[in-house]
Amino acid sequence: MTRNQKTEPVEDAVDPATGIREFRSRHVERARARLSDHFTEHELTVDNPDAIETAMRTAALGDLSVGSVRFSAPVNIVQTTPEDIFIIARCLRGKAEVQNGDDFMAGGAPKGAILSAVRPNRITTFGDDALFRVVRTARAALERPLAQWLDRELPEPLRFEFPLHADREPGRSWWGLVEHLWSVAENGMLFKSPILIDEVNRASKAVLLTLQPHNYSRALSEGAAPAAPYYVRRAEEYIDAHAGEVISMTDLVRVANVSARSLYEGFRRFRRTTPMAFVKWLRLERAHADLATERPGATTVAAVAARYGFAHLGHFAAVYRRKYGEAPSETLRRPSDG
Question: Does some domain include residue 234?
Answer without folding.
Answer: yes
